[in-house]
Design a protein that fits this description.
about 45% helix, alpha+beta, three-stranded antiparallel beta sheet
């Protein structure tokens, strides 16, 4: 038994929920199909700066993260949502800088509906529930950390859940169908 755990390979995965204002990120390690939340947080940009400078801040945040952790080559990211003209443009700009910062990696977009469906299963919520609080609740339940601090806008929980959805989809961890 002990020999197996010594030889167990650990992989480290980065997941993103990008936007121009604040991008959520999550670092999850996987050993023997067991995920561990290593780090998470926000990459913030200063709204008083030009979009170009804000994108530079996002780029610096992402490159800082990938220089700190030996992450895998595929990075899940929440897919952009097309609803309103200005926010959609800002999301696409942040997706562009993400692709530039991660040019040596493969980016795998995860649909927000996949994230919400997973969260509904974990929280045993009704089919119509799809709020940010539900996603944060699902993350806390999944990691058995009821006091896990997550930002109120859901960016951190979204990044964590996007990463989990990818890991489940690729059959790297257990957790149901994503």
């Amino acid at each position: 038994m002990g020999r197996r755990s010594i030889l167990a390979k650990t992989t480290i995965h980065l997941g993103l929920d990008t936007s121009l204002t604040k991008s959520g990120f999550a670092i999850i390690s996987v050993t023997d199909r067991k995920p561990t939340l290593v780090d998470y947080g926000l990459i913030k940009s200063n709204a008083k700066l030009s979009d170009g400078e804000r994108l530079r801040q996002i780029h610096a945040g992402i490159t800082g993260i990938i220089s700190k952790y030996p992450i895998e080559r595929v990075i899940p990211r929440e897919a952009g949502i097309v609803r309103f003209n200005l926010p959609t443009k800002q999301i696409f700009k942040s997706h562009g800088v993400t692709e530039f910062a991660l040019a040596d990696y493969e980016i795998y977009d995860i649909n927000i509906q996949t994230v919400k469906a997973w969260a509904r299963r974990i929280t045993d919520s009704p089919g119509k529930r799809n709020d940010k609080a539900m996603i944060a609740e699902a993350v806390r339940i999944f990691f058995n950390r009821p006091d896990l601090p997550l930002n109120k806008d859901g960016d951190e929980a979204d990044a964590i859940t996007v990463t989990l959805a990818y890991l489940i989809r690729e059959n790297l961890i257990d957790g149901g169908i994503a």
